[in-house]
Specification:
- The structure holds two protein chains of two kinds.
- By secondary structure, chain A is α/β, with parallel strands linked by helices.
- Chain A has a domain of 89 residues: 2-Layer Sandwich (Nucleotidyltransferase, domain 5).
- Chain A has four helices and seven strands.
- Chain B is an alpha/beta fold.
- Chain B has a domain of 142 residues.
- Chain B is 38% helix and 13% strand.
- Chain B contains five helices and six strands.
- In chain B, strand 3 and strand 4 form a beta hairpin.
- Chain B starts with 13 loop residues before the first helix and ends in a 7-residue tail after the last strand.
- The chains are: A alpha/beta, B alpha/beta.
- At the A-B interface, helix 1, strand 2, strand 6, helix 4 and strand 7 of A face helix 1, strand 1 and helix 3 of B.
Chain lengths: 161, 204
């Protein structure tokens, strides 16, 4: 009767997956660009304290990291349980800090040197004596800009266990 | 010889390869950038230089002992009250004459600080003080300054200081950046952060 065919049972056409690689590549590029590789393997316990008055540390190329805390379980036998400093991938002494800062500074481009910040990533259980020693060493090499790296949170959270 | 078309390369496994890479980068990514409390260390002074003389009433003394207890102006204090006490001290504005502070909203107690640019917070801690306590105290003191700055910025420019600072660091901010910078500097000048830290020593 009608001109239009009612059409029998037609097969659904298969969805083309040809654009799947494109989508995946897009995601891939996003993550490649956003990735910051973790460059130091931590050999210490490093639970950062919480605070809410934060300033963001952008521009990774202007930051020198200093870690401090108790050696993690694997290294306890070798290095004891007293809090220690980690520079790059190895344990260090307070007196090594100057050398380290000067070496790191020499690696950076010259125009960045006035903007260098030293980020102190110190474990919550560390005593201030060690931190004070680090700060004194930093003052002596004129690395005055420092940043105590913290997590975002309420300070009262530091005292809950 | 007849020219033969090059056989088409099968791209079916392209997705698999891309997925593999994707998963690798997904796992290694740490997007969150670090943040923390920024501080300037004092430069080392030549030994023959005399320390500045500061009036007793312009010093707000905060001492943390090795049991992580807080002593503020010779009184034991809980951490949660520290911010309030610091604000009261900084914003007191008890000065007269050229030390007078016309924007302070404090009590104008003559026995407390003259004006915010004279007010010094002196922080002293023991070698045995824990780092978490130290950071908490630092955080509260910075919070006190931030609150005062926010309040003043709100009154003068109708937005908070935190907002203004974020805008002035934002490359995409559409407004007048120079003016904003000037305003930020102005607020910073009204409430400069003066936190002096004595080197840690053994307190009793």
């Amino acid at each position: 009767m009608s001109k239009f065919k009612k059409g029998g049972k037609k097969e659904l056409p298969a969805i083309s997956t040809a654009s799947l690689p494109d989508i995946v590549f897009m995601l891939l590029f996003f993550f490649m660009v956003a990735t910051v590789m973790r460059d130091d393997t931590l050999m210490i316990q490093n639970t950062l304290p919480q605070a809410d008055q934060l300033e963001k540390l952008e521009k990774k190329d202007r930051i020198i990291f200093i870690y401090a805390g108790k050696p993690s379980a694997n290294y306890k036998a070798q290095f004891g349980t007293e809090a220690r400093i980690q520079l790059n991938d190895k344990f260090a002494d307070v007196k090594d800090i100057k050398q380290y800062i000067l070496a790191e500074r020499a690696k950076k481009r010259e125009e960045l040197i006035p903007f260098l910040t030293t980020a102190l990533k110190v474990d919550v259980e560390t005593k201030m004596g060690l931190v004070g020693d680090i700060k004194q060493e930093l003052r002596e090499v004129d690395a005055l800009k420092i940043n105590y790296t913290t997590r975002k949170g309420d300070v009262q959270g530091n005292f809950k266990n | 010889m007849a020219k033969r078309a090059a056989p088409e390369v099968n791209a079916g496994s392209m997705a698999d390869i891309a997925f593999l890479l994707l998963i690798f980068f997904l796992v290694t990514t740490t997007i969150a950038s670090d943040s923390g409390i920024s501080r300037m260390l004092p430069p080392i002074k030549p030994p023959d230089e005399k320390p500045d003389i500061i009036k007793e009433k312009n010093i707000f003394q905060v001492i943390v002992n090795k049991q992580d207890q807080l002593l503020v102006e010779n009184e034991v204090m809980e951490l949660k009250n520290l911010k309030e006490a610091a604000i009261k001290f900084i914003d007191n504005g008890g000065g007269t004459g050229e030390d007078a502070c016309d924007y302070c909203t404090g009590e104008k107690d003559p026995a407390s600080s003259d004006n915010p640019s004279k007010a010094v917070i002196s922080l002293q801690n023991d070698r045995e003080t824990s780092y978490k306590m130290y950071i908490s105290v630092q955080n509260e003191l910075v919070a006190a300054y931030t609150e005062l700055r926010n309040k003043t910025a709100n009154k003068l420019y109708g937005k908070t200081f935190t907002e203004m600072e974020a805008n002035s660091n934002d490359a995409n901010y559409s407004g007048d950046k120079d003016k904003l910078k000037e305003q930020v500097d102005n607020i910073k000048k009204m409430y400069p952060q003066i936190i002096s830290e004595a080197p840690a020593k053994k307190l009793n």
